[in-house]
Amino acid sequence: MHKLLQEQKGAKIMLLGNESIARGAIEAGVAFATTYPGTPSSEISLNLFQISQESDLYFEYSTNEKVSLEVAAAAANSGLRTLCMMKHVGLNVAADPLMTLAYVGVKGGLVIISADDPFMFSSQNEQDNRYYAKLSGLPMLEPSCVAEAKEMMIQAFDLSEKLQEPVIFRTTTRINHSSAFVDLGNIKPRIVKGRFERDPFNYVTVPAVSRNLHVKLLKNIKKAALESEASALNFINGDGPFGVICNGVSLSYVSDAIKDLKVADKLKVLRIGFSNPLPENLIKKFLADCRKVLIVEEGEPFLEEAVKAMAQEAGLTLEIKGKSDKLFSRLYEFDPAMVRTSIANYFDLPDKPGIAVSTDDLPEIPARPPNLCAGCSHRATFYEVKTAANEMSLDTIYPTDIGCYTLGFLPPLSMGDFVICMGSSVSSACGFAKATDQKVVAFIGDSTFFHSGITGLINAVFNNHNITLVILDNSITAMTGHQPNPGVDMNNFNLSGYGQVKIQEIVKAAGVKHITMIKPFKVKKSISEIKKALEYKGVSVIISQEICSLYAKSIKQLSDRSFYITDKCKNHRDCINEIACPAFFLDADQVKIDAVACVGCAVCAQICPENAILPLPKKQS
Amino acid sequence: MKITRLIIVAVGGQGNLLASKMLGEAALSAGIPVHMSEIHGMAQRGGVVESSLVFGDAESTIISNGEADILLGFEPSETLRALNRCNKNSTVITSLAPIPPFTVAIGKGVYPDLEQLQKLIRSRTCELIAFNALDLAKQAGNIMSTNMVLLGALIQTNILPISADQIKTAIKTKTKKIFLDVNLKAFDLGFEAALKFSGE
What we know:
The structure holds 2 protein chains of 2 kinds. Helix content of chain A is 38%, strand content 18%. Chain A contains 22 helices and 23 strands. Chain A has a 7-stranded mixed β-sheet, with helices on both faces. Chain A has a 5-stranded mixed β-sheet with strand order 9-11-10-13-14, sandwiched between helices. Chain A is globular. Chain B is of the alpha/beta class. Chain B has a single domain, classed as Pyruvate-ferredoxin oxidoreductase, PFOR, domain III (Pyruvate-ferredoxin Oxidoreductase, domain 3), CATH 3.40.920.10. Helices cover 44% and strands 22% of the residues of chain B. Chain B has 8 helices and 6 strands. At the A-B interface, strand 1, strand 8, helix 11, helix 14 and strand 21 of A face helix 1, strand 2, helix 2, strand 5 and helix 3 of B. Strand 8 of chain A pairs antiparallel with strand 2 of chain B, so a sheet runs across the interface.
């Protein structure tokens, strides 16, 4: 049985934040769950995917976050408890349904998880999604630790049903990827079938309907404000003349700072866990009781601006600070010492001095950037496109997209010139092609193509842009941990009842006239095919098909046969300098291949000018 | 309860996260509060994996610069890179088996000299326990047991509020049967290796 399905109420187990959130949803009786995977949210959905295979929970990997939220909106309006999860930038994709779903509301509880990523451990930006709650008018809850995340999920579902509105549940990476002990509670029975009651004058958002629905939303925001005011999720800890207002993970840093500085008698803390609408009366009362207030929040001054406005309304003139050059930054994430020092400085309390060892004079430590894996098919494709373009003396632009292959922008491949968001490769290619005379070759992965590349491709065909799109089809959503996508053969997951969408057929149906299929591990043939596609004026598409080597290994489809470098090697080093596979290493100035890392793609063997790279005899490999 | 802060740094694939999980389980059975955090973005693509474990009465799951009581490094250059997490009272345990970053492998960077690296760490911290954990893992029967070797050394220092028996129980519950003997042997070898430093 899946560990998150165990019924032992009261048992204490160690859970990752994302597991705790998934368990919270299970305890809340979630019956329907949708997602598009994205770090730091991915393990929530991974666990629910596994659970759905041994229970009546419905789970789906949707093609993108917008689709995911629309599917979820229907389930929730059929009365089911529904969870929709995504990373913070995913909510941008889902923002369109979000805004009007707030007007329509829900019947069954709908919780939308936005997993924010301060410091951008694995994201293209660190936007603060608390503003989505404000923008949409939806309630938002934010846990401060792993154990609370589970309890808060249950409250989020209850709140959503009570208000008949979706609730946004916002986490940050340090909640998602921290682990702690969690007490298990009862699992509420799932209700897995609902019924949709027709009510077009509340569901069909033509202007006349929406004008009424907006009125309803504003009423709901007022109701939500009363809930927030009374909610135990907004609480005050401690007592003293000074005040701290904080949210999320910052609470743990603040609590530790109070202990470290031994100022429990001087500082009280207002933790905001129900962050939209804010508990105005509670905050005003708190302010009136403080001599001076510090706002501790990662990201934008969301609380700070609201709290200052409330102080003004209440006629309070105490000093309130948060983001400033001397206190907290809007950049990156906080840490315990940073919070402690700012509290000490702001309230003029004696601090513990900094004690880190000096590292200014350490020898330079070589960087360890992430790299495409040994035998990654993307490396082969990048090499081949680069070689083809060089041999044709093309002045190129390479817009790329979001996935493992983004790493192709690093030298020596240096294949990646522009990325802003999922799907932007092909659409930005259209713009570059018109705005310049350069040859534009865009890269996109299979999952990202399904996510948001198809519309860009259709745009390219319709507006007749002169671009080449290379679809890097490795048959899996690799970056986020090998989730399925519509192109994947679900037999690989031992699952039946799924459809499978062929990329080639979509490309053809989109009206692309020049379609090339390549097998990237056949270097010469691929280069010559790529050249033909690059010569074509108009939209050409190259589909480069080869399974992700990590995934192949995990499903035991890798026929790996290591290669080695024979003494014919004359140290040209084309292998290292051009393709830079991590299986290579230098040993006494000679290139060697790590037989454990090598998966036998044979790309290096095909580019070696001396033919010095050969497969190891079978029994040794 | 006294707070003990442990940072573990490793290269993707070295089994840092599993070792952290075992420490967490052992703490759970010992009734010691623990909060852990991990950063494993792109770990499978050769990047750095860092875990922080805070034992005792603290709520933070991460550790600021200068605040680690123990730095456990699975790879020497990564240990050195994380040295700013230490203070003069910190204990550093590191394997001396290098996994050169690819930048070094292709001649685009210089790997730090291991003697100098140890001298530096020793001069700035309270104690350095440094040995080749990979050799001991091989000796135990599987290079994948490097993490168990280092767990053994970590427990030997007695800085964590966790006993060898408690962690061994966690190893038993978290290890596939066929690897169990190797893992336990690796743990013992690491424990003995660290013991040799305690007399110094």
